[in-house]
User: What shape does this take?
Amino acid sequence: MEFIKQEDREYIENKYHDTKKPFDPYHRRAYHGYEYDHSTGLSDGEIQAELLILSQDYATAPHPVAKAREIEYVLRHTRIDVNEHDYFIGLDTWNRVIKPTTLDKWKNEIFSQALPEIDQTMKSLNASGAVAIWPDFDHVVPDWESLMTLGFPGIRQRAKEYRSMHEAKRPLSAQEKAFFDGIEIEYTAILEFVDRLYRYAKTKSHEKAKRQTECLLHLRDGAPTDSYEAMQLIFLYFMISESVDCYQVRSLGNGLDSTLYPFYQRDLQSGRYTRDEIKELLAYFLLQWSAIGNYWGQPFYLGGTAADGSCLVNDLSHDILDVYRELGLYNPKIQIKYNDNTPLNFLNKVLNMIRCGQSSFVFCCEPGMWQAVMSYGADAEEARTMDIRGCYETGVRANEVSTATGYVNPLKAVVLALHDGIDPRTGMPVGVRTGAPSSFVRFEDFYSAFLKQYGHLIEETIRCANAYDPYMGEINPSSLYSATIKASLERAYDGYGGGVKFNNSALQSCGLGTAVDALMAVYELVYEKQELSLEELVKILDKNWEGHETLRRRALRLSHKYGVNDPLADRYAVAISHFFCDKVNGRKNGRGGVYKAFLHSAMQFVWQGEKTEATPDGRKAGDEISKNASPTSGMDKNGVTALIQSAVKLTPTSYPESFCLDIMLHPSSVAGEEGLSVMKALLDVYTNNGGMSIQMNVFSPEMLKDAQAHPEQYRNLQVRVCGWNVLWNNLSRAEQDAYIVRAENIQ
Assistant: This one.
């Protein structure tokens, strides 16, 4: 079956940017695709000019009200589209045009007026590459169940009822009044926007118009009644939140298959839609995110465990995979909740897609993730029903906000220990004074200095985050999100400012594998074999190994490396890992929640690597560092089993936000029926030893080298990066080289 007409696919692929022109996926919102009907609204420039005036009118208004009024203006005046090539609406203004006059303005005011010293510290940490830190608003999952049950009108009505309940007890405070006013204004604006779309759809006479019109009428007046309307609601909420409200939506549904399944069942039973017709709608739905082209990928998850212990995988789960495979997509990215109850035919379908080149999957292993979630206070039911957010993060459904507080770079702590706390890059005292290299008589002395530097970076990150945490709801009020969360309504408090049960913060460790390798190189070269002094090594590193290529290559080949099941390297990896987790987990944050450790890198394995000097493991200045729980690229030379053994020694469940391992497999090792069994066996070994998330690339070095030499022949080659999927041709040359090095060393 053809799930989507080719002319429709081409039209949607040009909906958000012109595919014939250069495109930067990091700045995807800066583009427009095909032209919308100019009679339907204003251009972005015209809207921005009016927002500058409007922001002055509301300069003294409470932030939830001021922000809601700007969103109202955008939704009233943005150009819209409903056309014959797409089942899903078009919103033209999707570049977060309110950000300069709301989030950015308020953040700058708060940091400059209330937190000037914190602002300077954060700038210094970010510039050095030691820590990447900023207020994070991009890991939010609304209560999709409430949205599906109530729809936009019901969400607004429920908020009114909670307001009345609070008013019956006592007069509302100014903060509480602003909270409910923001919700009322924003959801009224959304309903007006849907009505605008409905009235515009009524003017159309093409083949899809009747269905579009009926869908929008139902969403204006109530909750979704069928699969199409449920998908349209998800898309509408996503576009408004992500593109206007400045909050990324980091899961489509509470399990896309689980959220849509009741509608799917009713549609099939009533005859409203056939299974093939729902697949067609899914094709148009999934293609939206592929066309948007977010570099980080748009996540949703499938599967999970029901209350009776059975698996939630259903016929719709299979249909989603079938459509995704047929379309050849690499975005959205798909998380699979995995357990021993996961049906083998479903698992094999996913594994086969991965080995055939669709690597946009991560397995989120329920036993380990349940244990991790319960470690910070969730009960067993909250753990079972948790959402997977973002790349593979845990989150209690409809009752947890977890911000990505900062990425701490332990490899930079090695550099700081070699330079007595002074950052060679900026000349700033980013670390603490631990002594000159000549003072480290034993390796234990140097290791102690490293831990002091690492501990200082952790403490500084927490100190900064605790200072700005109380202002999160003021910097960027979350009326759209908060209205979906009952706990927030019960407390009459912004959901992102402390209005949920779990107001948590995640602290990321980035580059652990390379940090271990660097420490082991110091141990082996300087202290065990005494080939040179630490002072001599520092001088060599300061010159980026220039004139010492032989020594550098030896450092790259030293035996004590993380990821090869080496006892000594792994002993230090475990110690450093526990050091980080012990300092982070359970610490009180600035919003009444706790800190959660997270072994995750995002793009910091490249960006922090660019800011990190040459290191003792043979790495040159600016080279990438290890990502997630993975080894330095090319160092996992003893095979994937040895890598898994090294990784699980770190106790993955001690990272409650999540812990992810990236593995690379050679195509010959996963071929045929036996290959599927090999992939499942690796997944089971990891799961049964407490692993939390694991993702796979299947590559041969020959194919990657050919793809690098002939990119025009590999336009659809996919790569699983850190927690998302990209096309090979969209990677930098340095990133491609790193994958080739790793592929050359896998066994």
Notes: The first helix runs from residue 6 to 13. The chain is about 50% helix and 10% strand. The longest strand covers residues 400-408. The chain has a mean pLDDT of 97.
